Amino acid sequence: MDIKKAVLSLGILSLGTSLVAGDVTINIKGLKSSKGQVIVGYWTKADGFLDKMEKVAAKQAAQISGNAATVVFRNVAPGVCAFNLIHDENGNGKMDTNFIGIPKEGFGCTNDPRPKMRAPKFDEAKVNVGAAGAAYTINAAY
User: Fold this and answer.
1) Fewer Cβ neighbours under 10 Å: the N or C end of the chain?
2) pTM
3) Rounded Cα gap, residues 116 and 120, in angstroms
4) Which residues contact 21 (CB under 8 A, 6 or more apart)?
């Protein structure tokens, strides 16, 4: 194979892999009120999961309707990731906690892990998104 064909083949292969991405729909249920908004984070790595919001791959806010909300992340690459939610009742854009760090607002993650006395870990919340995308339901906890 000559060099031109090799370069063209690599270009086509890399183009094909970048086009393989689907939408991920996050359905949120169990919100205790329609006050405020829901913020959903999309995480691709365990590093900083839930602790360092600057490490979140993407985040979106959604309005609440009937104690539920839906967020759609477009063109999500296939692979392992996790999603979390915050019911931002006061609209300040962050999770409010009490003086010892216990959440004062609703929260949740994919797979609905409910560990006692600590935040969920990435491995407990991770899901495997396929090329066609996926839909997940997260039940809010308070």
Assistant:
1) N
2) 0.85
3) 9
4) 75, 76, 77, 78, 131, 133
Q: How many residues are recorded in the chain? A: 142
Which band of pLDDT confidence, cut at 50, 70 and 90, is reported for residue 7?
very low
Per the domain annotation, does 5 fall within a domain? no
Strands 127-129 and 79-88: antiparallel
Total domain count, the chain: 1
CA distance 31 to 28: 8
Residue-number span of the structural domain to which 115 is assigned: 21-139
C-alpha 112/C-alpha 38 separation (Å) is 16
Over residues 47-95, the pLDDT tens digits come to 999 999 999 999 999 999 999 999 999 999 999 999 999 999 999 999 9
Residue 71 lies in a domain: yes
Token readout for 101 is 């760090």
